[in-house]
Design goal:
Oligomer: heterotrimer
Chains: A mainly alpha, B alpha/beta, C alpha/beta
Radius of gyration of chain B: 22 Å
Order of helices and strands of chain B: EHEHHEHHEHEEEHEEH
Strand order of the largest sheet of chain B: 3-2-4-5
Largest interface: B-C, 32 and 35 residues
Distance between the termini of chain A: 44 Å
Strand content of chain A: 5-15%
CATH architecture of the largest domain in chain B: 3-Layer(aba) Sandwich
Strand content of chain B: 15-25%
Distance between the termini of chain B: 28 Å
Radius of gyration of chain A: 15 Å
Number of domains of chain A: 1
Helix content of chain A: 40-55%
Largest sheet of chain B: 4 strands, parallel
C-alpha cells in the first residue's frame, strides 16, 4: 500500500501487546522518547484472549506514573485496530505524532540540555 | 502472606530528594506476590525516579537490587560489598524487611510500600485480610473464620446488631464475619456450638503484650 | 414477686410484675448539663428509669456516667449505657465502680456502633471485651464481688444488668439463640431494637417463650415514634438492622404532612396496646429521639400512667 507515516516513529514488534509491560513504556521514555504508544488487536479479537486488555491496563499504569513524576501521562497511549487496517495504522501514527508534537519534547531531554 | 501496597511516588521522592546515590531494594517474597515490592516494581519505581530527577536536572544515581528476602540476615549480607556506594536505600519489603535492613546497615532506609495486613490473594489485584497474628488462634471455635481480623469490632460473641444481609455495618462490600461463621457452622451441622460463650480473650499474646518473640530452644544452636 | 438482687427501682417494678417503662436521653455535645436535665425533667414522672446513651453513633458527647450522676442527683433513676468500643477492661471495671459509688443501679451493656459512623472515624476502637463479656464482667463484680483477675472488691457494685437485643437483625436463624447466649452470660433485662414489624416481633417472642427465656430475663419492647414519613423511610432504608414494613411507611406517607407527627405517635400508642398482652413482654422502652416531650403523652395514652410506686 506504501502508506506514509511520520518518520520519527520507531516500531518495536512484539508477538502480542500482552507482552508489553509498564517497564517497557517507562524505559522508552527514560531513554528519551517523546511518547510511546501501543497498537494492539481489536478488543475481543486477541488470539490470547486478554493480551490487548492487559496492554491497555499497563498503558494506564504507565500514564499514571508519568503524571505523578511530572512527565505527563498523555505521552503514552493505546490504539486498537485489526491487521488489515493499514490506512488506520497510518492515521493513528499521524495522530500520535501530532499529539506529541503539540506536547513538545520529553521534559527529561530539555533539562539534560540545560544541565549540559 | 504479608500484604503491602505501593506508596505514592511523590512521597518517596520527598524522602530521597536530598540524596545522590540511592538503592531501590526489592524483596522476592510476599511483596512480590502482591505486586508491591518485587523485581518488577523495583524496576518501575527506579525508572520513574530516574526520569523525575532527570527532569529536575538533578544527578541522582538510582540502582536496583532485589533480594531473595529482606527478613533474613543471610540474604541481606549479599549486598554488604555494594552498600557503601549508596547514601540511602528505599526498601520495597514489608515493614519487617525495612527494619532488618536498617538494623544491618548504617545508612538511611526508607519504606517504599505501606505494609497492610496478613492476607490472601482473592484474585489478581484483590487481597483481603485473614489474620491479625493475635498469638492465640481461636479458629477451632469459630468454624475456621477469624472474628479478630474479619469483624470490624473483633467480637468473640457476635454478630452485632449491624449485620445486614450478610454485610457489615461499616460497608456493604465487607462480609459480616459472624454471618460467615454462622453459615459455616450450619454447613458443618454444628450450629448448636453458636450458643457456647466465648471467654474473655487473653490479649497479652497480641500487640497489647508488647513486642513479641517466639523462642524455640530446641532449634537454637 | 421474683427475687430482687439490687436496689434498682427498675428491677423492683419488673419483679413486682408491673409493666416497666424506660426511655432514653442523649447527652449534649458540650459541658453544659442543662439539656440533659431538661430532658429528664420532662419525662421523670412518666418513666421508671432513663437510659443515658454512651457516645451514640460514635459521636463524642458528654460522658454517660457524668450525665447519669446529674440524673441521680435530680432523683431520676438512670440506666448507664456502656459500649465496649471505647474502653478496655481496666476502664470499664473502673467506670462500673464509679457508677456504683453514686449508687447507680442499672447498666446496659453494648458493643457500640463502629467509629466510622461518628466524629472520629480515624480513631482506634478497643473491643477488649464484647457486650456478652461485659455482661459477665458486671455480674462477676456484683455477685462474686471480684474483679476480672479474681481480686476482691471492697463494696461490690449493685447493678441490675441489661443488654440490647435486635429481633430483626441478620442472620435470622440466631435471633433467639443469641438472646439465649446473653441470658447465659447473665443478662437480667433486655431493651429491644425499635419495633415496627409487630408480626415478626411476636414470632420472635413465641420462640423466646418456647425456650422459656422470658422466665429468665425481662424483655422491654423498644419503640420509637416517627416524626415524619421521611423518618420512616430513612429508618427503613438506611438504619442497619431495622425492619419497617411497607404498610407502616405507607400509613405515614398517606398522612398529610402536618398530621404526620401525630400519626407517628398513634402508631406508637397502638403498638403499646397490642404488645402489652404479648406473653414475655415485661415493659416498654420508649426512645423518642430528640422528642422527649412526647414521651408523657405516649405513656398516658398507652395506659401506662401513673407509674407504680415501689418501696426500697
Amino acid at each position: 500500500m506504501r502508506l506514509q507515516y511520520p518518520a520519527g516513529i520507531k516500531i518495536i514488534r512484539v508477538p502480542c501487546t500482552g507482552k508489553v509491560d509498564v517497564i517497557h513504556l517507562l524505559r522508552t521514555m527514560e531513554k528519551g522518547a517523546d511518547g510511546a504508544y501501543v497498537v494492539g488487536c481489536m478488543e475481543g479479537d486477541c488470539h490470547f484472549n486478554a493480551g490487548n486488555f492487559r496492554a491497555r491496563k499497563r498503558v494506564e499504569q504507565a500514564a499514571k506514573i508519568l503524571d505523578d513524576i511530572g512527565i505527563g501521562g498523555e505521552r503514552v497511549r493505546m490504539y486498537n485496530l485489526s491487521s488489515s487496517e493499514g490506512p488506520l495504522f497510518a492515521k493513528y501514527a499521524i495522530e500520535m505524532d501530532e499529539i506529541i508534537r503539540n506536547l513538545g519534547p520529553n521534559p527529561i531531554k530539555l533539562s539534560k540540555k540545560t544541565a549540559a | 502472606m504479608i500484604v503491602a501496597d505501593k506508596k505514592p511516588i511523590e512521597e518517596i521522592i520527598s524522602e530521597i530528594e536530598t540524596y545522590t546515590n540511592v538503592l531501590i531494594l526489592g524483596c522476592n517474597e510476599c511483596v512480590t506476590v502482591c505486586e508491591a515490592g518485587g523485581k518488577k516494581e523495583v524496576g518501575i519505581l527506579a525508572s520513574a525516579l530516574r526520569m523525575h530527577f532527570l527532569k529536575e536536572g538533578k544527578e541522582v544515581k538510582i540502582d536496583e537490587i532485589t533480594l531473595e528476602r529482606q527478613c533474613d540476615h543471610e540474604y541481606l549480607e549479599e549486598i554488604r560489598a555494594a552498600i557503601d556506594g549508596y547514601d540511602a536505600v528505599v526498601s520495597l519489603a514489608c515493614g519487617v524487611g525495612v527494619q532488618f535492613m536498617a538494623e544491618t546497615y548504617p545508612l538511611p532506609v526508607y519504606p517504599g510500600v505501606n505494609t497492610c495486613f496478613l492476607g490472601a490473594t482473592e484474585k489478581r489485584g484483590l487481597w483481603t485480610e485473614r489474620c491479625q497474628a493475635c498469638g492465640q488462634c481461636i479458629l477451632a471455635r469459630t468454624a475456621g473464620i477469624c472474628p479478630v481480623s474479619r469483624c470490624a469490632k473483633r467480637l468473640f460473641n457476635g454478630p452485632c446488631g449491624g449485620s445486614t444481609r450478610g454485610a457489615c455495618e461499616i460497608n456493604k462490600e465487607v462480609d459480616c464475619a459472624w454471618q460467615l461463621i454462622i453459615d459455616r457452622l450450619k454447613d458443618l451441622d454444628r450450629l448448636d456450638d453458636y450458643e457456647q460463650l466465648s471467654p474473655i480473650k487473653d490479649w497479652s499474646t497480641d500487640r497489647a503484650g508488647g513486642p513479641r518473640k517466639v523462642v524455640r530452644e530446641d532449634l537454637q544452636q | 414477686m421474683k427475687d430482687v438482687k439490687t436496689p434498682s427501682k427498675l428491677e423492683k417494678i419488673l419483679a413486682a410484675g408491673h409493666l416497666a417503662v424506660t426511655s432514653e436521653c442523649g447527652p449534649p455535645r458540650g459541658s453544659d448539663p442543662e439539656p440533659i436535665k431538661k430532658k429528664a425533667e420532662m419525662i421523670k414522672h412518666h418513666v421508671d428509669a432513663v437510659n443515658i446513651t454512651d457516645n451514640q453513633t460514635s459521636v463524642t458527647r458528654l460522658c454517660s456516667l457524668a450525665a447519669c450522676i446529674h440524673l441521680k442527683l435530680m432523683g431520676v433513676e438512670p440506666i448507664l449505657q456502656m459500649v465496649t468500643r471505647d474502653r478496655n477492661r481496666i476502664a470499664m471495671q473502673s467506670d462500673i465502680l464509679g457508677a456504683a459509688s453514686f449508687d447507680i443501679h442499672n447498666m446496659l451493656c453494648l458493643s457500640g456502633d463502629h467509629q466510622s459512623f461518628g466524629d472520629c472515624p480515624t480513631g482506634q476502637n478497643v473491643h477488649d471485651l464484647d457486650s456478652m463479656q461485659l455482661i459477665q464482667t458486671v455480674r462477676r463484680m456484683r455477685d462474686d464481688g471480684k474483679f476480672l483477675n479474681g481480686d476482691d472488691i471492697n463494696r461490690p457494685p449493685e447493678i441490675f444488668v441489661g443488654a440490647a437485643a435486635n429481633p430483626f437483625a441478620d442472620p435470622f436463624e440466631i435471633r433467639t439463640p443469641r438472646l439465649a447466649k446473653k441470658v447465659a452470660a447473665g443478662v437480667e433485662f433486655i431493651q429491644t431494637q425499635c419495633i415496627y414489624n409487630l408480626d415478626r416481633f411476636e414470632k420472635w417472642m413465641t420462640e423466646v417463650v418456647d425456650r422459656g427465656l422470658h422466665e429468665k430475663v425481662y424483655i422491654l419492647a423498644g419503640l420509637t415514634p416517627f416524626k415524619s414519613a421521611g423518618m420512616a423511610r430513612y429508618m427503613k432504608n438506611r438504619v442497619p438492622g431495622m425492619d419497617v414494613p411497607d404498610d407502616v411507611v405507607k400509613r405515614m406517607a398517606d398522612t398529610p404532612k402536618e398530621k404526620q407527627a401525630e400519626e407517628g405517635i398513634n402508631i406508637c400508642v397502638e403498638s403499646i396496646e397490642r404488645l402489652k398482652s404479648v406473653t414475655g413482654v415485661a415493659g416498654f422502652h420508649i426512645m423518642a429521639i430528640e422528642w422527649e416531650e412526647k414521651v408523657p403523652g405516649i405513656v398516658e395514652r398507652g395506659g401506662l400512667h401513673p407509674r407504680p410506686v415501689v418501696s426500697g
